[in-house]
Specification:
- The protein has 7 helices and 16 strands.
- By secondary structure, it is of the alpha+beta class.
- The strands form 3 sheets. The protein has a 7-stranded mixed beta sheet.
- It starts with 12 loop residues before the first strand and ends in a 5-residue tail after the last strand.
Length: about 300
């Protein structure tokens, strides 16, 4: 006997150990991008882009970007890296699930001690306050690079047309309420014991990644160093539409991909297929993403 379709998904979280730390991956839901796939890689042959999509059984019209946030319990601090899209409709109707999924994972947003931002784009910082401007993480400090903070909270950008004003307005709304508990991430310095910021400019002027390390085990939370695990990984020289400085972004990706592959560093791709946790392996002129074996 059949029953009606349920049309629902399980809670979007996954937990694993990293040395003495406990890590929980939490989904904010997928972003649907309205640009054509072939427009996302401006210096790539469109035919090659489409073939790559077909060969990997991926949609050929548009990109879909998962959002994989990371909560790290160091034993003394509860740290959240990036906060998703919040209630913004910029990413489509399936975003804004971070708080719901955190609670499903047994994590109370009030218990977060520190929010780390890789950068201040909407899908990374717009989940910091609710629609009334109240903090979603009321007991947390916030850290991002000083360059990123100064650039996106610059009031002068509010008078610029289009995207700069939109991002700056949202960044100010979401970050400035935490100004009394704001600190700046510094390249190659720990933000808390076991979590180190690494400067990776290009996608934005002050983009950084965070290296989580405990008992010799290491995980790189790469933010938007790479969006598309097929295109940018397989072809690190391909420019990406949303990178503010495409040439610098390519140089940064090439440098960091080589390091991750050489040192066999585990990575968390914020926009990689859920839950975005695995390694990269050098292959031909690029790299291949190797998902981690998940266990229950």
């Amino acid at each position: 006997m059949s029953s009606g379709f349920l049309k629902s998904q399980n809670a979007g979280w996954y937990r694993f150990a990293l040395g003495d730390f406990e890590c929980t991956l939490v989904s904010d839901g997928p972003i649907f991008d309205h640009n054509k796939v072939t427009d996302m890689f401006p210096n790539a042959d469109p035919a090659e882009v489409l073939k790559l999509r077909r060969d990997n059984f991926l949609p050929e019209e548009h990109l879909i970007f998962p959002q994989n946030a990371l909560v790290v319990n160091t034993g003394t601090k509860l740290v959240l890296i990036d906060t998703g899209m919040g209630s913004s409709d910029l990413g489509g109707p399936n975003c804004g699930l971070l708080l719901k999924n955190m609670r499903a994972a047994g994590i109370d947003p009030k218990d977060i001690d520190l929010v780390l931002l890789t950068h201040a784009h909407p899908d990374h910082c717009f989940g910091m306050v609710n629609d009334d401007g109240q903090k979603n993480f009321p007991n947390a400090g916030v850290s991002l690079t000083e360059t990123e903070f100064n650039y996106w909270t610059d009031e002068a950008k509010l008078s610029q047309p289009g995207v700069p004003a939109l991002i700056a307005g949202g960044a100010r709304k979401n970050i400035l309420p935490y100004a009394d508990r704001l600190s700046f991430a510094v390249d190659e310095k720990e933000v808390v014991p076991g979590i180190t910021a690494i400067s990776t400019p290009g996608h934005t002027v002050g983009h950084c990644i965070y290296i989580v390390e405990s008992q010799g085990q290491k995980l790189a939370n790469i933010g938007d160093l790479c969006h598309d695990y097929i295109g940018e990984l397989g072809h690190p020289d391909w420019k990406f539409l949303y990178d503010d400085d495409p040439d610098l972004a390519v140089k940064t990706r090439v440098r960091m991909f080589a390091e991750f592959a050489r040192e066999e560093t585990a990575i968390l791709g914020y926009h990689f297929p859920w839950p975005g946790y695995g390694h990269i392996r050098a292959e031909k002129n690029g790299y291949v993403y190797v998902p981690a074996l998940l266990s229950l």
